[in-house]
Design goal:
There is one protein chain. The protein is an alpha/beta fold and 222 residues long. Helix content is 34%, strand content 28%. It contains seven helices and ten strands.
Amino acid sequence: MSVLKTVDLKKYYGKGESMVKALDGVDLEVEQGEFVAVVGTSGSGKSTLLHMMGGLDRPTEGKVIIDGKELGSMEDDALTIFRRRNIGFVFQNYNLVPILNVYENIVLTMELDGCHGERGWVDHIVHTLGLSKKKHQMPNQLSGGQQQRVAIARALAAKPAIILADEPTGNLDSVTSQDVISLMKTTSQEFQQTMVMITHNEEIAQTADRIIRIEDGRIIRR
């Protein structure tokens, strides 16, 4: 069953001769439980694609459908709520709240939605990601790899339909990068969590179930 689908997705900037076609007719589908890597050179359109898939920006044309819902048909407020409940994000810069401890950061998205979540589920994620002894520490007391684990735990906590990871190892050394990707792969398999990862690192991309290559705003391999 498809969790994510894009249909003739386009994102253009500017007009006339100066027009930039960041995405130029992208069609793709991601199945339940898949771990997909999207690769491409700088400027290929991969980050723009992630922003479209995550409802962080709206396309010029085309559709993004997540869990049967078309994002473009939603008003801004409804889209914000849908995104919070159905899409988990893992960014290169972690995006942790510095005044909250590890556990508070993990449950933040659920609490913003008025839901305190299942403590047993959150504790299971925390244990799986090796954060049990770090729950009460602040982000500035953690290494980069540990902070990224917290970001992954936060993305998993609300049981989203899909997790979108934008260069999740971009600020990590090679050994830590492999550890983080291994954990993402493990959690994807254990929790049957659908993940789409944007990366420029070919070695890391090879750990995914499937690689989608994008160049000049078009998919050239899926």
